[in-house]
Amino acid sequence: MIPSILPTYNRAPLEFVSGAGAWLTEADGRRFLDLGAGIAVNALGHAHPALVEALTAQAQALWHVSNLYGIVQQQALADRLVAATFADTVFFTNSGTEACELAVKMARRHFHDFGQPDRVGIIAFEGSFHGRSSAGIAASGSEKMTKGFGPLLPGFTQLPFCDIDAVRAAITDTTAAILVEPVQGEGGIRPVPDADLRALRALCDDHGLLLILDEVQCGMGRTGRLFAHEWAGIAPDIMMVAKGIGGGFPLGAVLATEAAASAMTAGTHGSTYGGNPLGCAVGCAVMDIVSDPDFLADVNRKAGLLRQKLEGLAAAHPDVFEEVRGVGLMLGLKCRAANADVVAAGHAEQVLTVPAADNVIRLLPPLTITEDEIAEAVDRLDRAAARVTAA
Ligand SMILES: Cc1ncc(COP(=O)(O)O)c(C=O)c1O
């Protein structure tokens, strides 16, 4: 008999009833150190006082009015995002997948309205993940995500990761945009080198294409800059954001330049819930903290510490781990043992990690994790690795 929850997830046999900071607690009181942060969502950890305050204060005042009316909190968050980034304008969604939908629509509509309606092609990359909607799976193109869901939305091409020559060769007069995650998350924590991001920007400029960055997982301070592309010194035309921006409240956004977005006029797109007062009140509280240069400097300092300890861990367990990779607090341990076994051994040691493709375990701790917690986390991973070796 089919379970009452559609069985699309492989769930671990764990259930949490409360959280505080980097810790999650089960009903029996067992505490787990959370290096997954709900897959890079709880950027400020669990039950951060500023977010609890923002959410509960807003809950007392107003939950939902729809986008038929002005929304003060939405305006405030859009103004903060525009002030802090390349963007001139923002559309709020409830998830990263919806941000992907709009990014693709915006790119196509841009060329449609500017006299190049044949420009519909989107160049994406193998190993990418942009969500599970029709556009998202067509962009990713992997068999795992697309099998049985055809006909797929046309117009997407996948090229080998970071193969700039292949991108150059694939651009035609029907290409609209290049879509790329600056750091692939689900694909196994694979950063695009800065030089390659710059090369993609240059190709877009040379050919009049739009550069769409998917910063759903790597954005909002995760890499130690507010957005990951800042490390490369480039800016996109369109950017997808979600996960950390809501700190656990479902919230996403598409940020864009005026030039890229100007075809999106009244009636071209919408969302019932996107940009609702609750989500945007929380989003403002997240932005206030994460966009502070001192906060980001602290993320970088802790990221250096975690990385150094993980290099030691990998060296101590060469039978379990192959390498450490990633940027900031978006780190991956490529495993020699099966990554699922390492994640499960972590559960036995009460430390949570997230599996990814390419036999990687992801470490995406709350950006607020402390130095002591980093040390504790690596001790637990050390014991987990010993379990894997002993098994
Ligand atoms: C890079 C990237 N893009 C898009 C998505 C889809 O976001 P959501 O699950 O919020 O729809 C994800 C989710 O993991 C992601 O990591």
UniProtKB/TrEMBL annotation:
Pyridoxal 5'-phosphate binds at residues 96-97, 129, 214-217, 272. InterPro entries: AcOrn/SuccOrn_fam, Aminotrans_3, Aminotrans_3_PPA_site, Class-III_PLP-dep_AT, PyrdxlP-dep_Trfase, PyrdxlP-dep_Trfase_major, PyrdxlP-dep_Trfase_small. It is found in: Cytoplasm. It is an enzyme of class 2 (transferase). N(2)-acetyl-L-ornithine binds at residues 132, 271. Its cofactor is pyridoxal 5'-phosphate. It catalyses: N(2)-acetyl-L-ornithine + 2-oxoglutarate = N-acetyl-L-glutamate 5-semialdehyde + L-glutamate. Its EC number is 2.6.1.11. One of its GO terms (biological process) is L-arginine biosynthetic process. It holds the Pfam family Aminotran_3. It comes from the Bacteria. The modification N6-(pyridoxal phosphate)lysine is found at residue 243. GO terms for cellular component: cytoplasm. The keyword Signal does not apply. Binds 1 pyridoxal phosphate per subunit. GO terms for molecular function: identical protein binding; N2-acetyl-L-ornithine:2-oxoglutarate 5-aminotransferase activity; pyridoxal phosphate binding. The keyword Glycoprotein does not apply. Homodimer. NCBIfam families: argD, PRK01278.1. Belongs to the class-III pyridoxal-phosphate-dependent aminotransferase family. ArgD subfamily. May also have succinyldiaminopimelate aminotransferase activity, thus carrying out the corresponding step in lysine biosynthesis. This is Acetylornithine aminotransferase. It comes from Pukyongiella litopenaei.
